[in-house]
Amino acid sequence: MYEIQELAENKLIILYILNRINMPITDEQLSKIILDNKLMNYFYLKQYVDELVESGFVEIEEEKYFITEKGIEILKLFFTRIPFETRQKIDEYILLNKEKIKQESQYIATYYKKAENQYIANCKVVENGIVLIELNINVVNSEQAKLICDNWKQKSQDVYAYIIKALTGQ
After folding, report:
1. Which of 61, 119, 134, 163 could form an S-S bond across to 124 if both were Cys, CB 3.0 to 4.6 Å?
2. Residue range 87-117, pLDDT digits in tens
3. Quick one: signal sequence residues (predicted)?
4. What is residue 66's predicted lDDT score, i.e. its pLDDT?
5. Burial class (CB in 10 A: 0-12, 13-18, 19+), 15
6. Cβ–Cβ < 8 Å for 82, 13
């Protein structure tokens, strides 16, 4: 009986986080929230998220999770099954970290190997679902591609401003 209650509570916790954060978040961001607050272990988290997606309570779009209307309805019915202290802990964490999480979601940088000695660093800035800038940079090794991706979050605003200035003459 305890395992069933814990399973339901953990799934509700995931729905609660996705509802309270009020924006799509990556697997890494969701995992960080859960693990930083010691809400459940990583392997259970993965299992529960998969089950929530399969059930239609959570959806994935562009590798980000968000709660569905169906998930919100279930959460409204059963959110009191999440202990008050747990809800409070989640609310405080989100209040302190939401801006950082939002910023992480806006500056996206990944790379992949296209061919021998050819890697593509894909860097973009997304705001409110709109791609403001996207660059695909072809480099000769994974170290360069990784460095570009690592620096994108700090340098993307400067790059964007430079390109706008260079192309508009303003």
Report:
1. 134
2. 999 999 999 999 888 877 788 888 999 999 9
3. none
4. 94
5. buried
6. yes
